[in-house]
Amino acid sequence: MTNIHPTFAYLAAAALMPLFVGSWRNRMLIAVAGLALLTVYMLPEGASVGASFLGYDLTLLRVDKLSKVFGYVFTLNSVIAFVYGYHLKDARQQLATLFYIGASMGAVFAGDLITLYIFWEVMAVASTFLILARQTPQAYAAGFRYILIHLFGGLVLLLGIILFIKGTGTTAFTAISPDAPGSWLMLIGVLINASAFPLGSWLPDSYPEATVTGGVILSAYTTKTAVYVLLRGFPGWEILIAVGCFMAVYGVVYALMENDIRRILAYSITNQVGFMLIGAGIGTAVSVNGAAAHAFCHIIYKSLLWMSAGAVLAMTGKSKCTDLEGIRRFMPWTFALGLIGALSILGFPGTNGFASKTLILQAVAHEHMSWVLIILEAAVIGEVAAMGIFLLSGIKFPTPLGKVGKSVITDPPRHMLLAMGAMAVLCIGLGSMPEILYSILPFDTEGFTPYKLGKVVGQFQLLAFSALVFFIMLPLLKRTDTISLEVDWFYRRGGRLFYRIMDRCLNPLNAAVDTGVARSVGRFAGFCRDLPVRIMSMIVSIASPAGEQSIVRRQYVTDALKTGTFPVGGTILAVTVGLGVMLALVL
Amino acid sequence: MSHTNKNKQMLWVLLAAVCAASLGLEFVAAPEVHFSFGHFFGFNAVLAALACAVLILIARGLGIILKKPTDHYDD
């Protein structure tokens, strides 16, 4: 057993990057991620590493079963994601990935709110680079919106943390009471990262714009770190049940409207995180187990789905359903592995999705929340339709892609297929042997088994009949080359409207002020330039003969000042008058 | 009948058979029911059919209002 923080593995890899080039760097990344997984395994429960910062006690490492569940799946996913990205030569993406995953590990093992916040912000910044790395105008714009939303969420969280620490005098990150100062602000900050409505549209806006490997990595960490924080800090907050129910349905309805396969998957994340929020909101041992198990399984099958969508994007350069009809014929392995991911997300018996979803449904049933259960089952059913659309684009007849030719489009390179295969094995392995998953959950599952015949039959009925209705109503779901307006409309359009209003109001005002100031300064400069002439004309007029015209006198003074040939008498007079004024002031 | 149409017909038959089989299995092991209104044969099948239809109709209806061309934000 050891107390080495798993984040160190990722930071060490970042430091070692300049020493490795080409595929050796990719091998090093896979090895280091494997080492991080081993480090999590070696961490003894109850271990803690503390420090002091500005008089506050920090707990940089706090190990218990809840943090270890997330630690396991974060590191496991990183190993397989680095295998998937074995072809990658872009050091910026690799570095961003290391900091992003390392920071998420730091957040999960943080025992105090200050440490949590620091890693939270590092995650936001590092993940932005995975979006920007695609280097398209859409990616730049989406990345900009992404970081703005996350910085806003981070500031709300920070404000909540400051109020909490000032009010309670403790920095410890444990279960937070709704009455504690700043607790609601902290909740809002965390919910933004969980992609909760109405501040969750950043997810379908940004993730589909990320790079092929960036999308795979992004899908796993930000929202699930938020779920971890909710399970740790906000268990039993009933508002999470309502938010989760809404997310579960909203995610699926939007997924049904989408045309881009990666946007379908992005909305599907929101839908699935809704399940986890409900688990956190119920707050019992079974529900927390269910949410943690579902986060674990979700990361695996969702990564698999993002990998298959990424493989299609990498091989065809396309991600719209309308452009990909019939792709299954050219990428059979990608399609088959994606199908396993889709069956897992639907909770098909024998897959890991079934093992984790039944735990959450069991927790809801225990609490006799009939309507929550109905909504969750409806969300599962809706997911059937969403995954139907995701897969159907690949098997649709006829196949316009056939015109492109099989020689052009094939399955992706072997390392990508290997990574997808590993995820598929985990989907089926954990689904058929759920006791492995249950053994690492925070609370004892007390012999719970999802494989009671009644449960399996019920799930089969749900899936079979929703598939039947989906195919009957398929003409209503014809894909169109469109986007669907979201809450981000308010800040995307609203931002432009604000700019235009400011442009119309402030720019004319600015121009008027500019003109006014320029004129005033010009006049003042002219006045200052003429001042010596005016003063000297006044003085000279005293000694001038009566009747001499002022214009003649002024011309005489101007010429004298220009040539420096002022008569001595005038000068003496000016000096005398000046001295007289000074004397008068002194006296 | 073309090869594609034959395949489609076979898939429909297969799907109907799976649905019928899942209903038939209810005689072997009844699904757990957690609702006071759910104690009738084929409740899960009815729930799935209704929920799927409602969600598709909601998505279809919202799509009329919310779907915009891909260059909607480009101007």
Poorly predicted segments of chain A: none
Proportion of residues in β-strands of chain B: under 5%
Average residue-wise pLDDT of chain B: 87
Instruction: State the strand order across the main sheet of chain A.
Output: 1-2
Describe it for me?
- The complex is a heterodimer of chains A (587) and B (75).
- Chain A has helices spanning 6-16, 22-42, 65-84, 91-108, 113-132, 137-168, 183-193, 202-206, 212-233, 239-257, 261-282, 285-316, 332-345, 352-366, 370-395, 414-432, 434-438, 453-472, 488-543, 550-563, 568-586; strands at residues 48-53, 56-62, 482-484.
- Chain A is an all-alpha fold.
- In chain A, strand 1 and strand 2 form a beta hairpin.
- The relative contact order of chain A is 0.07.
- The mean pLDDT of chain A is 90.
- Chain B has 75 residues and is mainly alpha-helical.
- Chain B is built from 2 helices and 1 strand.
- The longest helix of chain B is centred in the C-terminal third of the chain and has 24 residues, at 43-66.
- The mean pLDDT of chain B is 87.
- At the A-B interface, helix 10, helix 15, helix 18 and strand 3 of A face helix 1, helix 2 and strand 1 of B.
Q: What keyword list fits this structure?
A:
heterodimer; A: 587 residues; mainly alpha; two-stranded antiparallel ribbon; 3 strands; elongated; B: 75 residues; 2 helices; flat
